[in-house]
Amino acid sequence: MSRLKIGFVGTGGMGQMAHLSNYTQLHELCEVVALAEVRPQLARSVADRYGISKIYDHHMELINHAKVDAIVAPQLYRSHLAIIPDILKAGIPVFTEKPLTLTVEAGEQLVRLAEEHQTLHMVGYHKRSDPAMEYASERIEQWKTSGEYGRLQYIRVTMPPGDWIGGADAPLSSNEPYPFIPIEPGSAEFTDEQNRQLDTFVNYYIHQVNAIRYLLKESYKITYADRRGILLTGESDSGVTVALEMAPYQTSIEWHESMLVCFEKGFVRVDLPPPLARQQAGKVTIMKDNGTDSPSYELPVMPNRSAMRQQAMNFIAAVRGERPAPCESKEALEDLKVARDYIRLMQQYQ
């Protein structure tokens, strides 16, 4: 099968470190043939480093002239409404960073456009693509089907702030000013302060909100949020208790993000590396104690492949129709509904 021709819309820090540096290594799967970047000096530096032949200063020029099979658009999420609709209307499969947007209303617009134009919009919840998360998800589904370790009872995600860069090399940069790009406004439902809280929550914790649903394979609703913004709890459609610990402590040079999935007679735990760590997968620990066999622990060995690299491979596969995208915009919209419910719940303390 021929390589996909990929265009990049935006080549800032995250665009380079998390995405471009991975796609340009997948030589057998794709070729990055064009980029659109509003800062011309940065565009030229990035194109020279990564061997990209075509440079455009506006995303519409890339859409109209580059003849790409798919677009990777690592933009700030509050800029999505200014750029992504044009890509969807052109019928070009697109990848964006998380979250989908800031508000539910804006997210609904993008979901509607993707459906109207029958165009893939994959949202970058890279933790779903970590080999450790994929492995854990398969094992969880096996246990749910077999019932050997009892019912799924509890999922806890812990996300202390820490060194999320994990030693990644600094991206190319320039001193050029950022041109004006329209920014999505906050929700009309909330005050300015509540919209700031919403912005903070989706920026820092929407990955974990999404990961809970990925591990559950069903929706859930928030039932409690503490006044200090450290803990939220909820319940899934089938009655599984879930908890998200937000910044119970912090680290300076480590990363302690973890997912604990508890059955009655065992658990599956995932410890994730810093998001930008180069070619490191998470670690899986499996505890089994079904009362029949001897209690045991498993520590399966994961491949030396980062979630970001696997995510790029998953997007390419989804564009080709080889397998579904890990998270499309329609499901990503559910994360914004959880975030909205969280801010509503926090109103009781104001």
UniProtKB/TrEMBL annotation:
One of its GO terms (molecular function) is nucleotide binding. The keyword Secreted does not apply. SUPFAM superfamilies: NAD(P)-binding Rossmann-fold domains. The keyword DNA repair does not apply. InterPro entries: Gfo/Idh/MocA-like_OxRdtase_N, Gfo/Idh/MocA_oxidrdct_glycsds, NAD(P)-bd_dom_sf. Gene3D superfamilies: Dihydrodipicolinate Reductase, domain 2, NAD(P)-binding Rossmann-like Domain. Residues 4-125 form the Gfo/Idh/MocA-like oxidoreductase N-terminal domain. Keywords: Oxidoreductase. This is Gfo/Idh/MocA-like oxidoreductase N-terminal domain-containing protein.
